[in-house]
Design goal:
- The complex is a heterotrimer of chains A (285), B (237) and C (643).
- Chain A is an alpha+beta fold.
- Chain A has six helices and ten strands, in the order ααααββββββββββαα.
- In chain B, the strands form three sheets. In chain B, strands 2, 3, 6, 8, 9, 10 and 13 form a seven-stranded mixed beta sheet that branches.
- Chain B is globular, with a radius of gyration of 21 Å.
- Chain B starts with a helix and ends with a strand.
- Classes of the chains: A alpha+beta (285), B mainly beta (237), C mainly alpha (643).
- The complex binds copper (II) ion (3 copies).
- One copper (II) ion binds next to loops of chain B.
């Protein structure tokens, strides 16, 4: 914070030099550990470290398991965003905490008279400009990250299977297109993109196959679509993410990601004819 | 010290008010007539796969009007020992009896005897006309119904059960009973559905009716959205 | 004897001053409201047969009857009535209307004095927080166990919905009610608000609006959440009608108050109080007021169309008859996002005043701060669809809305810069308001960073409708805005009550609140990460540890707020008497005496500089340079002051 750039309001233009003298330089003067910059830097590093550690370890550990490439990228996004946000937030914490440590006289909280006035620092051009530019850069990074992930996730694939999801108070039913099979459990083949055509029989529901990392509302009268790419065998949960009345909490079920073979077997078990299965699974290709 | 006591008293008064309001809301919950209806132990049976299971039976009634009374011993309306169908009955609102809270044991074969006396119509989703999650035959007035279920445009109510979130494995039961033909009154003979299912793991299960017997959008307003008429809990213990 | 008392006691009004209004107060309002409500109920029963829970028609007409009857009984429309009849109020009537000579009773009347309205608002806000808080405690108790069977799903949904809306109403008025009414006119050197009767109206309309939403519990409750998404809300119980009447009534209050604030600041500033010298709190209030004027009508439309759908069978939101749920969702969020800033900006403004006063420094970058607030408001109206990323509505707009949402972080960052810049190198006076400022900084960063995840469309695919969202907006609204409001209460308490707040008790409350917020909402962040949906009465046992954590935090939080309430009530009665300017601050409200006289200043103020001249030349002078005046009531001020 160089002394030339302290702004004072128009009445005090003449006092600029005087104010500048009172302000300790941010970077310069004295041994390094006595400069404000150093104190802020220490707190900043500490808070950044904590933030980065939280970002790297907390979400991955507490976040639900992932069964799709979409959920993989959700996890990655959270890690990346936290790691980016940590140093930025730490600047605020650093400045605020340093001020509290350095410029709060002991017992000031119990005093009925205020401490003497601080420095009449009414702004600082370069600091504001740097702050603004960093925010702009960050916003651009965040935006591009989001746009890239979004477009890669929802690109339709040639061999995608299309199925219908019907929400109603308070049950999900899943229909496997031309096979005419309906189930309350969602079974999906692995490594195939699946496009859900989601609709509702009554009010708005939120179709949320949790570990697939996608969701879309179910509306009465028309269907909305969302694509997911299951990439890991195993169980996942399906929940309703939109309050839909009395038994909203119970509008949930489970799903399984299985191999292509198991998937066909399951459809056959449910009563689909081999011809219909063939049609349904290869139709899209 | 004096101030600490003052602060403590404030907190206690606040907590007392909160508890009082809370008790009021808690009391609102028990809108059913009877306390929890427990399934009755009726021996054991040998399953197809060779396992032997305990058998329990559960009686279920659905009435056209929750303001009426029924006989607690037979389930017939207004018998010799009349009990209110619903504590907060509402004219024109159907209700289930003898209670809306049931208790069944885990991993047992539960035989349900269901007397359906209400009128009805078309389902929102005809898929619910088909029994799901049952074991063995499903009979209507003693006759087995086809696997495709009953006529989806002639449904009275459904009995649809789900486990609370997180209960494994997935549990889903759904049976529809047809409407009572003609002009149903409390004295007409009921449609009797009989079916069995194997209960799942322990937990708090929820049941509700999927026939739109309420009003408003989707027919799920009013009685369908009021807890205790067309919905309730099943404690699986 | 203080000057207010002098004024009030020395002014003897005629025995007929006020006319009919002499006999009207909260009691007559209640009686008249109940009578009109009953008449409404009769009309409703005649028009449409109701079941024993009451039909939509009956319930709606009853509630509207209550609102109109209550306001009539309060005397809200007396002046208009007299004007229509050609017997306009004279000066004495107006003095009576401002509460002259009525002692404590004026707090229960349709009083036009902005200071009375401010205190009325303060009490109402605390009452609403009490009601909403009680509901929050019940929700958290139900969620202690995944199998908890303590509330029925219906009661639970009703509690969730009404808790949400009551808290939103309370937070919208929590700063702009008490402080934009009590303090803001004094800050700009005005004698009162521009429209004193509208000011009183804005308060009593909220009072009229509250009973219906609380009464909704008795007619089935509201089961569609505070967002009341259609078509679920069309299907819901008659409680939904009461909810909608409350909203429509409340919107009138916010609109009236917003206009009043704007006009007051534009037209009533003291001599020399240029726009560039306005305290930041005033800027926060007017920007929020203007934003409210933009946002709230959308809510009024959304909810009145909901009423017509429910009561007279229009089909705005019924898809089978050509309506659309998305119409409601759009209208709702066009209100819903700006509303967040309607809540936040006045609180942020108050925190800036606190920062400057307790760091003993001028605010950092006044113009940047005002610009940032305006930018937040401007961008705030262009981001609503980020609440609809997962609805399937307009997928092509996902990227633009992601852009506008993320852009908001730039002016928000500037606000942070200005706050920490103001603290930087200040000589910190660690009194209670400063504690709340630091808590705000801590919380709001967390609220902001978690907001960035939600602004990212792919991440929102996981977090939407998830407890993570709940934790995020509680961190911003409670951890940010409400903490700011608590700071504002502590800061202006000596001016409002004439006594010092007991900071020892206040600091106990502070620490409980600070810790309670962290525990409660970290718990909910965890629930969100694990994938727990919002508004569920029972949940997967996987989420139980996080829920217990959150509930324990919530009880701590409740204890903290109750202790703060105790500190306020206790100090109001027994606190150490405060001088006019205990903080040695420079803005105008601290330059007039305490208690504040009826028209705020015994001598009209003339302003020569902005209120942040700490550490500058003439440190000992304040923003005010009063010109002695003679017998006249208007001061001309000196030429310098006009500059
Ligand atoms: Cu749902
Ligand atoms: Cu039914
Ligand atoms: Cu928003």
């Amino acid at each position: 914070m160089s002394s030339e750039n302290i702004e004072i309001d128009e009445f005090h233009e003449g006092k600029r030099e005087e104010v500048a003298k009172q302000v300790e330089p941010f970077f310069k003067g004295g041994p390094i550990w006595k400069r404000p910059f150093f104190g802020v830097f220490i707190i900043w590093s500490f808070m950044t470290l904590i933030g980065v550690l939280i970002g790297l370890f907390v979400p991955v550990h507490v976040l639900n398991g992932s069964s799709s490439s979409q959920q993989d990228s959700v996890k990655l996004t959270i890690v990346v965003f936290t790691v980016i946000a940590a140093p930025v937030s730490a600047v605020v914490y650093g400045i605020a905490a340093y001020s509290l440590i350095k410029w709060n006289k002991r017992g000031s909280g119990k005093s009925d008279t205020p401490p003497e006035d601080g420095v009449a620092l009414r702004g600082h051009g370069p600091a504001t400009v740097i702050w603004l530019s960093i925010s702009v850069v960050l916003v651009v990074i965040l935006l591009f990250w989001g746009m890239m992930v979004l477009s890669s996730e929802q690109t339709p694939q040639g061999d995608a299977i299309r199925m219908q999801v019907v929400g109603q108070q308070w049950v999900w039913t899943f229909q496997y297109g031309s096979t005419k099979i309906t189930s309350t459990q969602l079974v999906l083949p692995v490594d195939r993109q699946v496009v859900f055509e989601v609709s509702s029989k009554d009010v708005t529901h939120g179709f949320w196959p949790v570990q697939l990392g996608v969701q879309v509302d179910a509306n009465p009268g028309f269907s909305t679509t969302i694509a997911a790419s299951p990439n890991k065998l195993g169980k996942f949960d399906v929940r309703c993410s939109q309050l839909c009345g009395l038994e909203h909490a119970y509008m949930q079920t489970t799903g399984r990601v299985v191999t292509e073979k198991q998937f066909e077997h399951w459809l056959a078990q449910k009563g689909a004819s081999p011809k219909a299965i063939k049609l349904f699974t290869t139709d899209a290709k | 010290m004096k101030r600490a006591i003052g602060a403590l008293v404030t907190v206690l008064i606040g907590a007392a008010i909160f508890v009082a309001i809370g008790i009021g809301f808690h009391a609102q919950k028990y809108q059913s007539v009877a306390p929890t209806t427990k399934a009755v132990d009726t021996g054991t049976t040998q399953m197809v796969n060779g396992k032997s299971l305990k058998v329990y039976t559960l009686n279920l009634y659905s009435y056209p009007d929750s303001t009426g009374t029924f006989d607690a011993s037979t389930g017939a309306p207004a018998g010799t020992k009349p009990v209110a169908i619903h504590k907060n009955g509402n004219p024109g609102w159907p209700a289930y009896g003898p209670s809306n809270v049931f208790q069944i044991p885990a991993h047992a074969l539960v035989k349900v005897h269901w007397e359906q006396r209400d009128s009805g119509g078309s389902l929102n989703n005809s898929w619910f006309a088909k029994p799901t999650g049952t074991v063995g035959p499903v009979t209507l007035n003693g006759k087995e119904i086809p696997a495709s279920g009953i006529d989806p445009s002639q449904v009275g109510h459904t009995f649809t059960v789900r486990a609370e979130p997180g209960v494994d494995p997935h549990f889903f039961l759904n049976v529809a009973a047809p409407l009572n033909p003609g002009n149903p009154t409390d004295t007409s003979t009921p449609q009797v559905m009989e079916f069995s299912f194997v209960s799942g793991n322990k937990g708090l299960y929820e049941w509700n009716c999927e026939f739109p017997c309420g009003n408003g959008i989707g027919g799920f307003g009013a009685v369908m959205s009021a807890y205790g008429f067309m919905s309730g809990y099943i404690h699986v213990v | 004897m203080t000057s207010t008392e002098v004024y009030l006691e020395n002014t003897v009004l005629g025995p007929k001053a006020g006319g009919l209004y002499r006999h009207q107060n909260f009691g007559t309002g209640l009686i008249s409201g109940i009578v009109f409500g009953f008449i409404g109920w009769l009309i409703g029963q005649e028009l449409l047969q109701g079941s024993n829970w009451g039909s939509d028609m009956t319930v709606t007409v009853t509630c509207v009857g209550w609102v109109i009857g209550f306001l009539l009984g309060m005397g809200a429309f007396n002046a208009v009535g007299r004007w229509i009849l050609g017997r306009d109020e004279d000066h004495e009537d107006q003095l009576y209307g401002a509460g002259v000579g009525q002692g404590w009773k004026r707090y229960f009347k349709f009083c036009t004095d902005h200071k009375v309205v401010g205190i009325q608002y303060l009490v109402l806000v605390m009452t609403l927080f009490g009601a909403g808080g009680a509901m929050a405690m019940m929700i958290r108790t139900q969620l202690l166990s995944p199998h908890m069977n303590w509330l029925s799903p219906q009661s639970y949904n009703a509690l969730v919905s009404v808790h949400g809306m009551v808290m939103i109403i309370a937070t919208i008025i929590m700063v702009s009610g008490p402080f934009a009414n009590f303090i803001m006119p004094i800050m700009i050197g005005a004698k009162d608000m521009a429209f004193p009767r509208l000011n009183a109206l804005s308060f009593w309309v909220v009072v009229a609006a509250v009973p219906p939403i609380l009464g909704s519990f008795f007619v089935g409750g509201v089961d569609s959440g505070w967002t009341t998404y259609a078509p679920l809300s069309v299907q819901s119980f008659p409680g939904q009608d009461m909810f909608a009447v409350t909203i429509c009534t409340f919107v009138i209050s916010v609109t009236v108050a917003g206009i009043n604030t704007l006009v007051t600041v534009i037209t009533m500033r003291a001599k020399g109080m240029t726009m560039g010298r306005l305290p930041i709190f005033v800027w926060g209030s007017i920007i929020a007021g203007g934003l409210g004027l933009y946002a709230m009508p959308a809510f009024l439309m959304a909810q009145s169309a909901l009423i017509t759908d429910r009561v007279v069978g229009t089909s705005m939101y019924a898809p089978a008859q050509g309506g659309a749920g998305w119409l409601y969702e759009n209208c709702f969020w066009i209100m819903g996002h700006p509303e967040v800033y309607v809540i936040l900006l006045p609180a942020a403004g108050a925190l800036v005043e606190i920062a400057s006063t307790f760091a003993r420094k001028p605010v950092f970058s006044y113009k940047a701060m005002v610009g940032a607030m305006m930018a937040i408001a401007g961008l705030g109206i262009m981001v609503w669809a980020h609440h609809m990323f997962t609805t399937g509505w307009a997928p092509t707009l996902a990227n633009p809305f992601m852009l506008t949402t993320e852009l908001i972080s730039i002016p928000t960052g500037v606000l942070f810069l200005c706050l920490v810049g103001t603290i930087w190198r200040g000589n910190i006076w660690a009194r209670l308001p400063m504690y709340f400022l630091y808590l705000f900084l801590w919380n709001f960063i967390i609220g902001g960073v978690t907001g960035i995840y939600l602004s990212d469309v792919p991440a929102d695919q996981y977090f939407h409708g998830n407890m993570f969202v709940t934790a995020h907006f509680h961190f911003t609204l409670l951890g940010g805005a409400m903490v700011g409001a608590a700071g504002a209460v502590c800061y202006w308490f000596p001016k409002v009550s004439g006594r010092m707040l007991n900071e020892r008790v206040g600091k106990w409350a502070f620490w409980l609140i600070a810790i309670g917020i962290q525990v409660t909402y970290y718990g909910q962040f965890l629930e969100g990460f694990q994938g727990m949906p919002r508004r569920v009465v029972n949940y997967n046992p996987l989420f139980q540890p996080a829920n217990i954590m959150s509930s324990v935090g919530a009880y701590t939080l409740m204890t903290g707020w109750l202790i703060l309430l105790y500190a306020i009530v206790h100090s109001w009665r027994n606190g150490v008497k405060a001088g006019p300017n205990p903080w040695h601050a420079k803005s105008l409200e601290w330059q007039t005496e305490t208690p504040v006289p009826l028209e705020n200043f015994l001598v009209d103020p003339v302003v020569t500089r902005d209120p942040y001249g700490y550490g500058e030349e003439a440190t000992d002078t304040s923003q005010l340079t009063p010109e002695p005046v003679g017998a006249g009531s208007v001061s001309l001020g000196n030429e310098e002051g006009v500059l």
